[in-house]
Amino acid sequence: MRAVTSWNVAAFVAALALSTSAAWTPHEQAAPAATETHAAEPAAPWTDHAGVTLPRAHYVRIASASLVTDHLLLELCEPERIAAFTHYSADERARGYRFHGKPTIHDTKNVEAILALHPDLLFVSSIGDPRPVARLREAGLPVYDLGEMRGLSTFVPNIREVAAIVGAPERGERLVQSFVASMKAVAADIPRAMRKRGMFLSAYGGHFFGGATGTSYHDVLAFGGLMDAASSYRDWPDFSSEQILAMDPEVIVTEDEMRPRICEHAGLGGLRACSTLGGIVELDRELTVDPGLGMLEAAQRVRRAVYGDGAATGAP
Amino acid sequence: MRAALVYGVLLVALVGLVLASLLVGAGDLHDLGLRSTLLTLRASRLGAALLVGAALAVAGLVIQGLFRNPLADTSVLGTSAGATLGGSAAVLGLELLFAGRGPRGISPDAVLPVGCLLGALVALAIILVLLQRAGDLLSIILTGFLLSSLFLSLGSLVTSLAQERWELGRAVVSFTLGGLSATGPLHLALAAPLVIAGIGAAWFWAKPLDLLLSGDEEAASLGVNVAEVRRYCVLWIAVLTAGAVSLGGNLAFVGLLVPHALRPLLGVEHRRLVPVTALAGAVFVAACDLLARSLPARGEIPLGVLTGLLGAPAFLVILARLQKGAPHG
């Protein structure tokens, strides 16, 4: 009896100890050695948003697994140095043609498919599961994590980072200046007192989803000339009908085909946005989900739909 | 003779699966620069599939013997749900608390399996504490059911919190659907001790489990300490479940289907069933994983979905056969 207990407990403790000791293996933060370093470049490596270093090198087969870098690479990098884009961008109705002719990445989980592209650098924006990136790094592929996509506050630093890594910092700086200036110009002519209260809302399966402070949705509203009615919320909240009624925005910015889902939902027909002409602004989903350069066009469309044309709106 | 045939078939299937698993994938093995990397990735994935399958199948066998119920499953004790909750919470916590960098001393890569292990251990601790007070089967089943419900509710909360961030929500949902696509040697090292110890312990407890099949009183009269058998079998079922979930997520039907398929062929003696169940479970999950990455689909089909799709009809067929063979009246 005692022997049985001892045997089982000892086996359990040993298995647990072996298992947890594997987890406590020191985490290697350094990225794999890079190829063909520029002699003119300083040796100090870049550090990504996950704390992993990336060697300074002239990368010639750059793959993008991030919506943000898909569009940035087109702006900042020679086409022949781009190895792949995400399928999200390639599948876009309006802008997908810009990504044609290049392989696409469907899922970062498919490590083999990414390696088969032979990239020498992969850009990702913070993905929840760290395992695929760990496998890619183990396989010798340098991966640069751009961190979260939270609108202008993260996009502007991301532009500078990508530009520096692809060896075009001046081009990056020009893009930052023109993009920020263009965003500010969208509704610069609309006085603060005249601005309407608006919010972003989408509806799926009877549930309402917002995009509040700290997201690209909020930036699109703010630069498009609206006061964010959901500014007291953060991130991407779920809203109940009551919360939406309490905010009762004058304008709801949403995705294509969402108007009936919102305004015909029990209790929401009385919203000011639903009973006002132009109160519901429907944008292409491809624009609303773009936390990068697409924010400019989205802000311009919001401004145009709510206030009509006015400000000069030049694309970068 | 029959056992030798079953072993023969399973070993041939295993060899075929090992070869196919190493040869099939998105990458090209003719690419000399990538060959060793691809083989390492595929070998890790194959190892994970074998460990997960063996663990779940043996855990299912033990739990069915313990409860004398052929429909009992690892989910009965709440450890599957506990491990799944732990894994989901780890994915969420990694992003919210550690900004993707992982706590000091632990690789972010290992956070998810460690979370699964902790979740399963919490469930196990609760079960064992309650077993000290009331060790009867009904109490265990009720406790397990309540724990499962509690952990599933908390898991839903974690999923809803994760949904506030697009990629994080995808990661949590993807983990709960099960899969082995991003498994590496570290994960194997983390899960292997648990699975190997669990299978060894299942074999060790085989004789008392056989005696328990004839009822508690009968077993006690033959010298079996029923409470002790229960306590330790529950412990090892939880350990096996933790190892399996930490590698592949919560895969349906493996623990239910595999022992069922083998009993008509090999009888109910646990010492005979444990090794062959481990082998058959390993073969089943490795085959499902091979199918998951071979089927033409835009992304990879979640392994948990495949085991469910294949397991449910197969289980119904086995059940129909058993009912056909059962005496009426």
Automatic annotation (TrEMBL), chain A:
From which residue to which does the signal peptide run? 1-22
Matches recorded under Pfam families: Peripla_BP_2
Q: Which UniProt keywords apply?
A: Signal
Does the keyword Transmembrane feature in the UniProt annotation?
A: no
Q: Which domain of life is it from?
A: Bacteria
Q: Which residues form the Fe/B12 periplasmic-binding domain?
A: 61-316
Q: Under which name does UniProt file this protein? A: ABC transporter substrate-binding protein
What is the originating organism of this protein? Pendulispora brunnea
UniProtKB/TrEMBL annotation, chain B:
What's this protein's family per the entry?
Answer: Belongs to the binding-protein-dependent transport system permease family. FecCD subfamily.
List localization entries. Cell membrane
Keyword set includes Zinc: no
Q: Answer yes or no on keyword Transmembrane.
A: yes
Do you know which InterPro entries this protein is assigned to?
ABC_BtuC-like, ABC_transptr_permease_BtuC
The protein, known as: Iron ABC transporter permease
Species whose genome carries this gene: Pendulispora brunnea
One Pfam family, please name it.
Answer: FecCD
- Predominant localisation class: membrane
